[in-house]
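Help needed: design a sequence for this.
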């Protein structure tokens, strides 16, 4: 497509949507029109891709995750569709800078950190390699909060991303799924058939909206289906009687489910809401998967041959008993057949060994909120205990530890470990740790289920789209094969002693540092020296990630410079970026310590030209795309044995930063 042809498509879209010419259109109108053009192209590509897959009986992969940290979509969509250059030229002809249009898009903050970013990367990877992949998550009205630092303290503000992000979403209310909470269960047997009646339940409708992820060079398209919670209908009778609060509260209670990512759960109401969120995601997704399969094959007998479902962390665990519910209650399968299907269909990825992430739900809350699912889990637990007693005769302690219910808690990780055909960690070291500690007994029980799948990144976002200067040098030295196969980057090793190439690499790094310094000054007013070493630690604020260790090292350097003002010292700029969970007091104190340390150093004329500390407020995917190409030192200093993988380390390495790290997670690999 030529820039002239693309310019006409853009003008047609601006005319039909807003009735304006390109030369008078606002940046927001141009952004939305470009987004609609990309969405339409990706939607059509997805239809062709899926119809071909269904025609050949290709297996469908479904990736369930509470988080998808998508970032911005316009830049990568244009890039993967091969339209980035023509779009740039078409806008330049109208004296419009495409980069300024990219800034109109909010980050889709549907995730918190590595888990959500990995999910987004898998969609990109599946699309590019031609795997039929669909992600499932919740359409949070407010994503991960907007961070504001006031006097060193983190303050959380609502991340109202939908007004700017909605343009990427196509709603499908006709494909809504009904989700039932609360109520009572009545069981009946009639002529050998088991009937379940669920009464006095509260319904919530799960309304799907789809966004698409285009594979590089147009091989495939992945779909992310996001569920929004709505009340099934409006309580007109209460409203007519003047009970307006009652009428509105039913709607509000239903819609609360998709309101906020990870509501604080240090109180009972928060715990119930989180459990409802998790079942809402699981039940809507499983209902959709089953419906899709039945529309193609009219039977669930062959589900394991045509469907693979990946559960990420324990949040979507309830997909397992929900699949059992559908097979038992709605399809009439017997228990053994239903469970056999579940075992073949579900796989589980453990993303952390942190105890708080291996979720356990209070039995009373679980039973009240999900009565039928609780019954199924109780029966799963009974059968699991029988099976484990045969595997470990007389070892009641081991059986109790591995059981699905114990100590008045429903154990999500054990439901996954007992059912899944594949259990993986996310780096070689982490996969060994889970076999030796958290899931050691399950490893003894089913050793062949355990494997390793080291995390990765959608490297084109972090290299091809973020570091064009480096890509130009790569094209000149090793060719462009690396754009399709990252292993081609090893060809650069032969230039390790080539002074010309090394000089160019340094020039590119300095140019990227100047770009970042300029971006930082423009967006925040903070001034940094591009000739200093950029030492970066950007990740969730957490004690195990040890940002406070980094701060202590900076404090030590500060004291050294105060005592030795004439010391030979290479100037350094320490760059931090992190959000603390709203209820995590210690992490917030760590932010405050780093900010106060920065204030002390940056305002001290004796050291500020040699040492500087920058805290990046509201660190997000799009900000990291500016930072990664400029970074020189990558701080990966988590307490050894606690960082399951880490993927920020890969983005830094890809852009030429040296890793300063512990032998942990993917640092080792």
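Sure. Designed sequence:
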């Amino acid at each position: 497509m030529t820039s002239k042809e693309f310019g006409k498509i853009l003008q047609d879209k601006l005319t039909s949507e807003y009735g304006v010419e390109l030369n008078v259109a606002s940046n927001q109108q141009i952004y939305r029109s470009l987004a609609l053009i990309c969405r339409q192209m990706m939607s059509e590509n997805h239809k062709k891709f899926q119809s071909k897959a269904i025609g050949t009986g290709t297996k469908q992969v479904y990736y369930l995750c509470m988080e998808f940290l998508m970032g911005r979509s316009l830049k990568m969509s244009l890039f993967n569709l091969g339209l980035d250059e023509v779009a740039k030229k078409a806008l330049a002809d109208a004296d419009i800078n495409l980069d300024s249009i990219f800034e109109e898009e909010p980050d889709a903050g549907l995730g918190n950190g590595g888990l959500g970013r990995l999910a987004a990367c898998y969609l990109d990877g599946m699309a590019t390699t031609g795997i039929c992949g669909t992600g499932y998550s919740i359409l949070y009205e407010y994503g991960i909060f907007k961070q504001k630092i006031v006097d060193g303290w983190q303050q959380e503000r609502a991340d109202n991303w939908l007004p700017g992000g909605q343009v990427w979403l196509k709603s499908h209310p006709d494909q809504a799924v009904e989700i039932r909470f609360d109520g009572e269960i009545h069981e009946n047997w009639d002529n050998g058939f088991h009937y379940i009646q669920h009464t006095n339940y509260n319904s919530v409708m799960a309304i799907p909206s789809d966004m698409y992820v285009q594979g590089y060079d147009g091989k495939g398209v992945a779909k992310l289906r996001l569920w929004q919670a709505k009340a099934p209908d409006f309580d007109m009778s209460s409203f007519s009687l003047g009970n307006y609060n009652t009428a509105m509260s039913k709607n509000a209670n239903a819609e609360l489910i998709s309101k906020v990512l990870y509501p604080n759960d240090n109180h009972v109401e928060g715990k119930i809401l989180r459990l409802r969120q998790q079942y809402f995601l699981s039940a809507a997704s499983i209902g959709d998967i089953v419906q899709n399969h039945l529309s193609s094959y009219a039977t669930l007998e062959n589900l394991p041959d045509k469907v693979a479902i990946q559960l990420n962390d324990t949040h979507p665990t309830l997909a397992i008993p929900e699949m059992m519910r559908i097979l038992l209650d709605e399809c009439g399968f017997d228990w053994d057949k239903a469970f056999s299907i579940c075992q073949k269909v579900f796989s589980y990825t453990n993303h952390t060994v942190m105890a708080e992430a291996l979720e356990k739900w209070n039995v009373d809350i679980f039973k009240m909120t999900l009565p039928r699912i609780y019954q199924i889990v109780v029966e799963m637990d009974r059968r699991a205990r029988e099976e484990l007693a045969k595997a470990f005769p007389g070892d009641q302690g081991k059986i109790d530890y591995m059981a699905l219910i114990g100590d008045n808690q429903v154990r999500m990780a054990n439901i996954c470990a007992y059912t899944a055909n594949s259990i993986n960690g996310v780096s070689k070291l982490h996969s060994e740790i889970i076999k030796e500690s958290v899931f050691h007994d399950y490893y003894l029980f089913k050793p062949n289920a355990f494997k390793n799948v080291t995390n990765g990144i959608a490297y084109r976002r972090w290299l091809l789209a973020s570091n064009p200067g480096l890509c130009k040098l790569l094209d000149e030295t090793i060719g462009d094969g690396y754009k399709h196969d990252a292993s081609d980057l090893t060809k650069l090793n032969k230039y390790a002693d080539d002074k010309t190439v090394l000089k160019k690499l340094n020039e590119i790094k300095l140019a990227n540092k100047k770009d970042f310094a300029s971006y930082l000054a423009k967006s925040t007013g903070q001034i940094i020296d591009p000739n200093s070493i950029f030492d970066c630690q950007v990740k969730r604020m957490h004690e195990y990630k040890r940002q406070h260790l980094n701060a202590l090292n900076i404090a030590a350097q500060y004291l050294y410079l105060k005592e030795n003002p004439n010391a030979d010292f290479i100037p350094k700029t320490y760059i931090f970026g992190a959000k603390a969970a709203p209820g995590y007091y210690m992490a917030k104190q760590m932010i405050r310590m780093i900010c106060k340390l920065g204030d002390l150093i940056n305002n001290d004329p004796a050291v500020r030209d040699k040492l500087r500390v920058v805290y990046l407020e509201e660190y997000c995917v799009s900000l990291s795309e500016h930072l990664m190409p400029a970074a020189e030192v990558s701080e990966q200093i988590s307490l050894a044995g606690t960082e399951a993988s880490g993927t920020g380390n890969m983005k830094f390495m890809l852009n030429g930063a040296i890793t300063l790290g512990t032998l942990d997670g993917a640092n080792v690999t």
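The mean pLDDT is 93.
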